[in-house]
Amino acid sequence: MEPQNQTSTSEFILLGLSEKPEHETVLFSLFLCMYVITVLGNLLIILAISYDSYLHTPMYFFLANLSLVDFFLATNTVPKMLVNIQTRSKSITYPCCLTQMYFFHFFGIMDSVLIAVMAYDRFVAICHPLHYTTTMSPRLCRLLVGGPWVYSCFISLTHILLMARLVFCGSNEVPHYFCDLTPLLRLSCTDTSVNNIFVLIVAGMVIATPFVCILTSYARIIIAIMKVPSAGGRKKAFSTCSSHLSVVALFYGTTIGVYLCPSSVHTAVKEKASSVMYTAVTPMLNPFIYSLRNKDLKGALRKLVNQKINTSS
To answer: Which Gene3D superfamilies match (predicted)?
Structure first.
């Protein structure tokens, strides 16, 4: 039986990536640069795909949505951390904390599902090229993107409703740079078993299941590519998948470590390092990963930049 005089905290203290003041200037400069690159890179990808009608295909439609989600995922966490460092105020109110947590899970789930959707798109393009246009119809593409938005909203809202029932009556110091679920659950002085069970269920649904789907898709893709008679054809097919595989390794390598590994191997340092990877590093690198080896996208970006220069001159 819980004591009746328990009162929940009205704010949390985000301890950040480092508690040493001498590190804060370096962290501020580093993450400000990363955030600016993330914003510019992802918005350029979206604009290039929107302006170039040649890129109005399912693959680029999914990529534009991934860039939009990456932009919002980084924006949800990095600016608040930069403000905290600049103002030397590490507090965040309870409602703001829940709001940040909601959008973190919302866009994190979207990221995971969209990466799996892009793997399915590559599977259809390589394994069933003659049926690609009919299979990846505009209606199916809209469903493959719209469905995850609704699904992410429901899952994230459930997380927040379960979190709102908890009481935080002890320490309010969160050993993180944003309001993540796992560190907050450790601070609760009420039973969190329902929350922990839901975390495992959701992790299986939005991390493990898409990851297995991606592995299955690429297993079929590799088998199909190996049947291509010419070495040039095999190289071209592999090159269309290499960018996506890099993103898969970056994103799932870190999220699986945080949400599916046993809690006994978790430390605050490991959690923060993994979180930096999928909330800041991956959204920053994705535009480079997808554009550096993609001639069509590089051409669209050049046309967009030249058009803006000519317009301003």
So the answer is: Rhodopsin 7-helix transmembrane proteins
